Amino acid sequence: MERRYIEYNKIIDMINEMQKRNEIFVIRPSDGINVRTIERNPNKLQTVYDLGVADCRKQLEKLRYYLR
């Protein structure tokens, strides 16, 4: 657990490299997500969900082009 951040950073680096090589399409949150690992506040969860839907809609045309 103490070194978990190292593996996390390796995976993030791998994702960034794959994205640069156009091997994967990545949709990331456009804004910070301020929720705990186990969040119980329905308003916060709804806000994060709505952000995800909005970000996906913004990227939808690029995703369709990528999938062609």
Give me the Rg, rounded. 15 Å
Mean pLDDT value: 95
Number of helices: 2
Helix content: 55-70%
Report the major sheet.
Answer: none
Fraction of residues in β-strands: under 5%
Q: Could you say which structural class the secondary elements and strand pairing correspond to?
A: mainly alpha
Features:
about 70 residues; mainly alpha
What does this structure look like?
The protein is mainly α. The radius of gyration is 15 Å and the shape is flat. 63% of the residues lie in helices and 0% in strands. The longest helix has 26 residues, at 42-67. The chain contains two helices and no strands.
Secondary structure elements and pairings:
Elements (H helix, E strand, L loop, with lengths): L3 H17 L21 H26 L1
Short synopsis of the structure:
This protein has helices at about 5-20, 40-65. With about 70 residues, it is mainly α. The radius of gyration is 15 Å and the shape is flat.
